[in-house]
Structures are given as structure tokens and as C-alpha cells.
Specification:
By secondary structure, this protein is of the alpha/beta class. The chain is built from 13 helices and 22 strands. Among the domains are: about 50 residues, no CATH class; about 300 residues, TIM Barrel (Alpha-Beta Barrel). The strands form four sheets. The chain has an eight-stranded parallel barrel with strand order 8-9-11-12-13-14-15-22, surrounded by five helices. Strands 16, 17, 18, 19, 20 and 21 form a six-stranded antiparallel sheet that branches. Strands 1, 2, 3, 4 and 5 form a five-stranded antiparallel sheet that branches. GO terms for molecular function: chitin binding; chitinase activity.
Amino acid sequence: MWQRIIVICIQITFVFTANPLCQKKNGFFIMKNDCTRFYRCVHGDLVQNQTCPKGTLFNIKTLVCDHRTNAPTECTAHILGTAENEISQDVEFAEEHTPGPDEWQPTVGPTTPMEDLPKEGFKDEYKVVCYFTSWSFYRKEDAKFIPEDINPYYCTHLIYAFATLDRDSLTIRIHDRWADIENRFYKRILKLKTINQNLKVLLALGGWNDSEDDKYSRLVADENSTSKFINHALQFVQKHGFDGLDIDWEFPGCPQAKCTTETDDSKMFAIFIRELKVAMTKNNYLLSAAVSSTKHIIDKAYDVSSMNENFDFINLMAYDYYGAWSDFAETHSPLFTKPSIEDADKMSKYKSVNFSVTYWIEKGMSPQKIVLGVPFYGRAVALKKKTQKPNYGLGDPIFGPASSGKYTNEPGFLSYYEVCDLIKTKEYKKHRDQYSGTYIENGKDFIGYDDVKQLVQKMSMIKHYKLGGAMVWSIDMDDFRGNCCSIKYPLLKTVNSVLRGVTSFAGIKCA
């Protein structure tokens, strides 16, 4: 809590200029002789210069202005101005500037310079819905992601994840005030609309962590709470300038996928979204939802006919079918069920992208309202035995998650750029299965993920079923700097090449 309070008064400048101190450097660095000041280099350019509030020091480990008792020991003397940082070069900085309370004013452009737009342009027959996760800002070094890293033409819709539901008032609550408000991420993400005026930006409410307890059940079950929520939601969306709301309750009747008790959540959720839709439509706002791809959750959580009537579109989370929680290794977003896996696990016939899409359609969802979610990340598991031909780990027993990635730092989870880096080490071998898709293994670990070829197949499925488009979770896990693939946003560009006719993005070669 202390960290969030003290950083509010940071003076900030984005300068984006070449500087001798930043030659061939990437990352954050403490100023010479002064741990109250720090700067950021991106690809050799000086892009950020900040001064911490009085009495605080920059913590190079957590990348925030911190209380002096938490700062690295080599910095503690800087409170008295007696210690010296290892950096020995002097540097002139641009004049510091404190933005006004109501606007964000970058000195120059975004951290990742925007690329030239393709000459053929972008068709809008299909949606490309991109989730932006505010916590990606806290990743270290080149994995740190900010709104200015987004090319606003590569998505038709951006969804900001997440706001949360206050468990007492049952109204929308800002999740991370420092990122969302003090660091102006709301304003900065919405500023992208001034570049691409056709872009729609929605706010996502909920998420996995926010769906743990009964607060959403209490919200939809009480008429007064529902009315209060809707009025507040309209004010919140209007105040911050969003184009709509994305409901990410995971899941009605099945909190965090645990369908253990009988509830009225599905019925009450249907009533709730009908009333919310009336209010949103009246004010020209969009209403979408992130929904499950799992059969028993779909059956228990959703009145599909009501959802079809009241949501502008749904984002089908067609991933995480398998992972460290499973008994055997399988890619976490397979197109189809592999026959040998179905022989070993009869429930696996319900665990594929193709099944989920067709099941939602069978339940009554209009295909054009289904936006198929694709993962820009991999799931990694540790195998119980060394991989062998012909499957190289696919279908073999596992005993839990594999090690975490260097940047995402979550066991069993790696961003696409982390998977790409592993392949480049040549320790891992890449394989492809016609049912399961793409995976890599090193004899002991198995990592399933979507590469360019797998994405092309999924985009073709979208066209085959005449779906509404593709959703990506999440934009910050693509190789957005091009550090691994030598091309920025290889996955997102592939989505655009197939769905939006950007032929110059076709045929990308990467891991």
C-alpha cells in the first residue's frame, strides 16, 4: 500500500531521444550519485526520466519508487547524498514536466515506434478483439508493456483488463489505481482512438481472480443491487470515455470453474444482462462477455438464448483445456481431439476448439456473435518420463507445471516471446500434430502453444463457421518488439492477414 501512495507524485517525462548513456541498452537504470532519479532505455534510446517523491528511492528490483527501508542497500546512503551508483557517465536530460491532472502529455511518441500501415489497408468484415492487461506494465526489461506499445490499427476492439466488483457496494471498482489512474493508463489506452477513429475500447469487469467469491451472485440476485450497478456502470463508462463494457464473470454458478452447488446464477444472470443491455443500448454503448469453452460450465452457467439476444458479441475463451492440472500432456488449445487421447480419456472429446465453437452454435448462439479466442501464450508441464518417438511427450503422464518464464514468472505459463526464445536456444525441439497443434519439448518438459501456422488454421475455422472474428489473450504476450522473430507482432499480424485481408502480413516465418 505504501508503494502505491508514494508514487502518485512522480514527475515524469517521456523524451525518446538518442543519448550516449543508452547506447545498446535496454531497461531501467539509476542515475549517477542519485537513487531518487532513474531513467529507461529502449533499443538505445532514452525514453523516460523520472524523479521519485521526497524521502523515497528507486527500487531497481521492483521498478517503483519505494520507502528507503525497502530500497537496495547500495542506495540507502543516497537519502543523505553520499553514495555513488555504478554508473559513471554524466548526461543531460530534457526539462522535466509534470502533466496536468486531466491529461497525459508525452513529449514525443510511443515506446515502440508505430510501423507504416500496409498499403492494402484493413478490411472490417471480421472483428479482431485484443485484450490489454494493465499488469503487463510490471514485467521487467523488454517485456514491460504500456499502451503506447499498441498499434491501434491492428485491432478493431481493445478491451482493458480489468476493473473489479466492489464486494460491499457491488459496483465497479478501479482495480489498480496507480496504473489505471495515476499512471493514466485509462487515458492513454483511450488516446489510441485519436489515431484510429474506428477503434472501439471497452472496459472488462471481473476476471478469474475477481470471480472467486459470491459477490457476482449477490449482485444479480438482488433487484436493488442490479439497478444501482447499472446506474453506476453507465456513469463509470461515460466518465472515463470507454465505448462499452465486457463482462468477465468466471462463471455464473461455477465460481472459478467449480460447479459444486446448485444456484440460480444462470437465470438471474440472464435477467441482469437483459436490463444492462437496455441501458447500454440507450446510451450507445457496447456490451460483450468473456465466456467459457467448457461443456459442463456452458450448460450450467449460461442461458444462451438470452446471451444471444443481449450481448453484441461474446469472446469465447477457447484455451486452457489442458495444463498442469491435467493428468497428461496435451496442447492447451487443440483444434480437434486426438483419437489416441480420446481413447485414454473419454471427456477429452469435449476439449477442443472445434467442439466448443459448434456446441455454442448448437445451444443457440449466432455464429457472427462468437469471437473465437486464441492464446498468445503457452502452457508448460513437467513429464514423468523422458519423451520418446513417435509422440515426443504428447499424451504422456505429467506431475505438474514446468518452470516459469523469465518475464511472466508463473510456473507452467510462458508468453509467446518466451516460447520463441526457448526454441532459439535449440534445447527444445518443435513438433506439430494434426489434431493437437504445435508443441515443443526438451525430453522432460512439454510446452503447447499456437504458432503462426496454428493461427492460420484457427482463422480458417473462423471463416468456415462464419464467426464474428478473433479475440487474442493477450496483446502484450505477442513478440511485440520483434526481439525474437525479427518482426513486431508476428501473431497479431497473422490474424490480420487472414481475417482482414492484409496480404503483406501473410507468410510470416517465426518459431
